[in-house]
């Protein structure tokens, strides 16, 4: 007779002590919206509150040679809108300036 060794007491739902909730990752979402024809709009949302979004918008406009605006949404908070497809440029700008890590930036669209 062989003894069954598989029935040891292991509770998969037991508390393991890994309650580190300080690692919440807030993503920065960069999306694109089609306007009409070839015209597009890039939106950036989810930026941390410590960042002055007006200064960031001014830097985007100067760096990418495009126009943009800051829109306040009830659900999403402040959203930066830029003319044209600036998704990759905005993502690399945020990473190079140290505003966000590469794994915090989510690029959506097409």
UniProtKB/TrEMBL annotation:
Pfam families, alphabetized: SUI1
The keyword Protein biosynthesis is assigned to this record: yes
SUI1 domain boundaries: 28-98
A molecular function GO annotation: mRNA binding
UniProt-listed PANTHER family: EUKARYOTIC TRANSLATION INITIATION FACTOR SUI1
Entry keyword Lipid metabolism: no
Keywords assigned: Initiation factor, Protein biosynthesis
Organism of provenance: Allomyces macrogynus (strain ATCC 38327) (Allomyces javanicus var. macrogynus)
Family label: Belongs to the SUI1 family.
Name of the protein this chain belongs to: Translation initiation factor SUI1
Record's function text: Probably involved in translation.
Xref: InterPro entries: SUI1 (IPR001950), SUI1_dom_sf (IPR036877), SUI1_euk (IPR005874)
